[in-house]
Write a structure and sequence with these properties.
With 220 residues, the protein is α/β, with parallel strands linked by helices. The chain is built from 8 helices and 8 strands. An 8-stranded parallel barrel has the order 1-2-3-4-5-6-7-8, surrounded by 4 helices. Strand 6, helix 5 and strand 7 form a beta-alpha-beta unit. The structure holds D-xylitol-5-phosphate. D-xylitol-5-phosphate binds next to strand 2, strand 8 and helix 7. Its cofactor is Zn(2+); Fe(2+); Mn(2+); a divalent metal cation. Belongs to the ribulose-phosphate 3-epimerase family. Pathway: Carbohydrate degradation. Catalyzes the reversible epimerization of D-ribulose 5-phosphate to D-xylulose 5-phosphate.
């Protein structure tokens, strides 16, 4: 029985009180924060830059992962690391030279991750799995929180789990999008071990209760 890793997407957080919100996320016993970085080009939404992440860094000690939903992320890779993100996730679809980009993240001292949009096949990352510590399989089309979970991604999740295990790779398999009490168990059965949730965690008035509910539902 592997305990699920719970990651909070900050997208539904109250941006007017972001520092206090990250403290509340840590106090709720959530394992990591995902900063949903969006540039208005790769996805039709625009969120925050490295300075916003840096402003929250010292409020908590928990890990930060930057999910770069941005075109051509290379010029700013060091900025996310300097802002305090221990994991930097780029989209395979946004990188002209993905092998080099992932190698650069590692050289900068962060853990590289690669994300796949729903339409992108696992074969896209076949030749770079040895370079990453994390594979993020999107279970929504990126850009917004509160969308419906795409169960059609479960074969891709299962294929990723099989490939990681077959090659004996030490890779966190994360899913992101529409993860909640009604969907997390199916994603876990398919082979995911890391679960990023936004609206399911911020629903109601207790992050801790929602987090506990998700952890229970993951192994139900
Ligand atoms: C989507 C974001 C996801 C999203 C998750 O573009 O990358 O992290 O915020 O939110 P929910 O859990 O509400 O789908």
């Amino acid at each position: 029985e592997i305990a699920p890793t719970l990651v909070a997407s900050v997208l539904p957080a109250n941006f007017a009180e972001l520092g206090d919100q990250v403290v509340a996320i840590e106090q709720a016993g959530i394992d990591r924060i995902q900063w949903d970085v969006m540039d208005g080009r790769f996805v039709p939404n625009l969120t925050f830059g490295p300075d916003v992440i840096a402003a929250c860094r010292d409020r908590v000690t928990m890990g930060f992962e930057a999910h770069l939903m941005v075109e051509h992320p290379d010029p700013m890779l060091s900025r996310w690391v300097e802002a305090g993100c221990g994991i930097v996730i780029v989209h395979a679809e946004a990188c002209r030279h993905l092998h080099r980009t992932l190698s650069t993240i590692r050289e900068l001292g962060a853990r590289p991750g690669v994300a796949l949009n729903p339409a992108t096949g696992l074969e896209t990352v076949e030749h770079v799995l040895d370079l990453v510590d994390l594979l993020l399989i999107m279970t929504v089309n990126p850009g917004f929180g509160g969308q419906a979970y795409l169960a059609s991604m479960e074969p891709k999740i299962a294929a990723a789990r099989a490939e990681i295990d077959r090659r004996g790779l030490d890779i966190e398999l994360e899913v992101d999008g529409g993860i909640g009490p009604a969907t997390i168990a199916a994603a876990a059965r398919a082979g995911a071990r890391v679960f990023c949730a936004g609206s399911a965690l911020f629903a109601g008035n207790s992050l801790a209760d929602r987090a506990a509910e998700l952890r229970r539902a993951a192994t139900a």
